[in-house]
TrEMBL record:
<dbReference type="GO" id="GO:0019303">
    <property type="term" value="P:D-ribose catabolic process"/>
</dbReference>
<dbReference type="GO" id="GO:0046872">
    <property type="term" value="F:metal ion binding"/>
</dbReference>
<feature type="binding site">
    <location>
        <begin position="253"/>
        <end position="254"/>
    </location>
    <ligand>
        <name>ATP</name>
    </ligand>
</feature>
<dbReference type="InterPro" id="IPR029056">
    <property type="entry name" value="Ribokinase-like"/>
</dbReference>
<dbReference type="InterPro" id="IPR011877">
    <property type="entry name" value="Ribokinase"/>
</dbReference>
<feature type="binding site">
    <location>
        <position position="254"/>
    </location>
    <ligand>
        <name>substrate</name>
    </ligand>
</feature>
<keyword id="KW-0963">Cytoplasm</keyword>
<feature type="binding site">
    <location>
        <begin position="11"/>
        <end position="13"/>
    </location>
    <ligand>
        <name>substrate</name>
    </ligand>
</feature>
<keyword id="KW-0119">Carbohydrate metabolism</keyword>
<feature type="binding site">
    <location>
        <position position="250"/>
    </location>
    <ligand>
        <name>K(+)</name>
    </ligand>
</feature>
<feature type="binding site">
    <location>
        <position position="287"/>
    </location>
    <ligand>
        <name>K(+)</name>
    </ligand>
</feature>
<dbReference type="GO" id="GO:0004747">
    <property type="term" value="F:ribokinase activity"/>
</dbReference>
<comment type="similarity">
    <text>Belongs to the carbohydrate kinase PfkB family. Ribokinase subfamily.</text>
</comment>
<feature type="binding site">
    <location>
        <position position="289"/>
    </location>
    <ligand>
        <name>K(+)</name>
    </ligand>
</feature>
<keyword id="KW-0460">Magnesium</keyword>
<keyword id="KW-0547">Nucleotide-binding</keyword>
<feature type="binding site">
    <location>
        <position position="284"/>
    </location>
    <ligand>
        <name>K(+)</name>
    </ligand>
</feature>
Amino acid sequence: MKKIIVYGGLNMDLSMECDRLPVPGESLRGSNFVATPGGKGGNEAVAAARMGAETFMVGKVGNDHYGRKLTSELVEHGVSVNNVSVTARDETGVSLVLRCGTERSVVTDPGANAKMSYEEVRAAIHGLGQHSNILLMSLGGGIDVAMQSLACAKRNDLFVILRASVVEGMKLPDEAYAGLDLLVINRTDCRILSGIAPTDDGACAKALEFFAGRGVRQCVITLKGGGSVTLVDGEMVRVPGRKVEVVDPSCAGDTYAGTLATCLADDMPLKESMEFATAAAALAITKVGAQESIPSWKQAQDFLKAAQE
């Protein structure tokens, strides 16, 4: 199996349940407070490791309690942290999460994540980027660093998966798409980047063709309860979602991406990889929290087998 390098955010998630979101100036009573390791990059790395991949985290934390907790938890899950740098100038990233039923609201202070430099990512790529290993990356460290890292990964023959989580009004430069091995986006990302809301099969196909026309070799659009879609030999393929009791959806997308990368690292075809990633993500949303909710390969395999019987 190929190695997986994850470049992305590392945050401590401070999460609490509430009956409803407070309005400005209002104080509400919450419950079930938890402080758990998270961040898209950290969650993806844990997912890949729990699925059996040799996984390397590239990121940055502060020289503080949260930073030490995040890195120790990664190590416990089997993730190499040799390329996680520590800074005394900035605090570790923190996310404040309010859980209201199956919905959640999040405010994130990226902290040290925002100070990750291209030179640090480049060093990791040069040290690990052999034999078409996989780089799973996001935009959390800033668009400039991401684009330089993406170009470096291509020069070093890595298989690049870009998880393009974007904000309203954000666009990616054309060079981000050209030659990209796999683009993974959700419904909102798809609408922002392409101008197409993937609300039905026709719109999904049109969106996938939009990204293919810009040079993306493969694109996967996740549709929450609607599963995910991609193009196979020019035809749209939909992998349905799995019905489970939703407890906390906060780590579904990260689990999906990390599992998908692992399946591809094991040379599994894309459609089958999407099916397995869907099963893992479904299991993740049945538990509270981020990394502790991520299933193992066997748990996802058993769930998928049971669902197909």
